[in-house]
Q: What sequence folds into this?
């Protein structure tokens, strides 16, 4: 039986750039959606130039393929359209009329001047699902501000709980090592889009989705946010320690570092039994997680002294055999050499007219029924313009020639 991708019936007009929007639309493409990435003639998505490293070096004629761009544009079709031109605007309208979903991350009101905002395009497609991604949303006093991942990590409180505590070496608020606010917003946006598709299938009605990086980052503060809402005390930076679980942090070993993640009292008892420290599990101060939190200042130095006696690999082998959560701290090279990562197919290599090998991180979602990661490589700038116009709009070769200026040629 021929496998049909879950979203092969969905067409997406992707007017987004950089990471949050492209992160969402890449997943839609992985699931089989026909994703049309609209880019500026000559320049394309900003991330094409966010290198080195580049898989394909930029030239005067082409912005190339940066590693950053490759991370979030698999499975899409790139077309170039001059949105400032009347003919370019008309092409976008015609495409929107044929699509199920539009994803955009223009500033509030940015598309209205072109007549390409939701209010305008819903007139040509009432069933359209529109997802707008901005830094601060469509309402509120910050709505017109530009929003960037780093800024949102700071404003959301995430950086206030990330990094070494005051008084420790290198103590300062710290951002996460990837653009996590963009990625989180992209994933929430994806969930909202899929929900709106289900709703439309039931009701026939389209939807407008207002997504904000600040909102979604605050929403994922999880226990740290509710710790504050319950206690009234704003949490601070704790390095690699956990505010609600002890011992749950990085420890130095004889040859490096490891993480020890003791998540409950049973695991703590097993840890103490394995390392010959029953006096700790038998101590009334440490028998419960609540007690270990209150008394972490006396407990952690004792655990640290124990862990320092063996190598990381020795500890991992020993503790894993007794169901005590622990693990090494891998660099990214070690990650992709890990047999578990290899077995799960998280490193993929695609092919492209631009390069014989295009490395990719595989989609982590696994369906038993078929593949969930597109074999279509991230596109070179405008590579699919003619095909998309023919396939979606039925444009003739003569009309494509006539539209050359609107297409940036």
A:
């Amino acid at each position: 039986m021929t496998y049909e991708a879950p979203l092969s019936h969905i067409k997406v007009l992707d007017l987004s750039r950089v990471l949050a929007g492209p992160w969402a639309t890449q997943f839609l493409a992985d699931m089989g959606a026909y994703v049309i990435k609209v880019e500026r003639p000559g320049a394309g998505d900003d991330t094409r130039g966010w290198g080195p490293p580049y898989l394909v070096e930029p030239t005067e004629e082409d912005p190339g393929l940066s590693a950053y761009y490759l991370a979030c544009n698999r499975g899409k079709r790139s077309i170039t359209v001059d949105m400032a031109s009347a003919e370019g605007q008309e092409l976008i309208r015609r495409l929107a009329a044929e699509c199920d979903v539009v994803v955009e991350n223009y500033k509030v009101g940015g598309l209205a001047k072109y007549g390409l905002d939701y209010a305008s395009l819903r007139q040509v497609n009432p069933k359209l699902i529109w997802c707008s991604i901005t830094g601060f949303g469509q309402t509120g006093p910050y709505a017109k501000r530009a929003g960037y991942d780093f800024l949102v990590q700071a404003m959301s409180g995430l950086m206030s709980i990330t990094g070494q505590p005051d008084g420790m070496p290198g103590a300062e608020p710290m951002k996460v090592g990837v653009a996590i606010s963009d990625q989180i917003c992209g994933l929430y946006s994806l969930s909202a889009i899929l929900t709106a598709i289900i709703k439309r299938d039931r009701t026939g009605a389209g939807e407008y989705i207002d997504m904000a990086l600040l909102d979604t980052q605050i929403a994922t503060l999880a226990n740290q946010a509710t710790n504050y809402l319950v206690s009234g005390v704003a949490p601070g930076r704790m390095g690699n320690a956990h505010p609600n679980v002890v011992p749950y942090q990085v420890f130095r070993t004889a040859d490096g570092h490891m993480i020890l993640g003791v998540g409950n009292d049973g695991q703590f008892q097993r840890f103490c039994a394995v390392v010959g420290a029953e006096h700790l599990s038998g101590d009334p101060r440490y028998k419960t997680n609540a007690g270990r939190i209150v008394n972490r200042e006396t407990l952690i130095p004792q655990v640290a002294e124990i862990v320092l006696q063996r190598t990381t690999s020795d500890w991992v082998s020993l503790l894993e055999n007794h169901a005590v959560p622990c693990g090494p701290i891998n660099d990214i090279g070690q990650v992709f050499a890990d047999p578990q990562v290899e077995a799960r197919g998280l490193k993929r290599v695609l092919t492209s007219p631009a390069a014989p090998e295009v490395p990719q991180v595989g989609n982590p979602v696994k369906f038993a029924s078929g593949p969930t990661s597109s074999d279509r490589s991230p596109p070179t700038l405008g590579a699919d313009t003619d095909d998309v116009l023919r396939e979606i709009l039925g444009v003739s070769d003569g009309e494509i020639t006539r539209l050359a200026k609107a297409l940036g040629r």
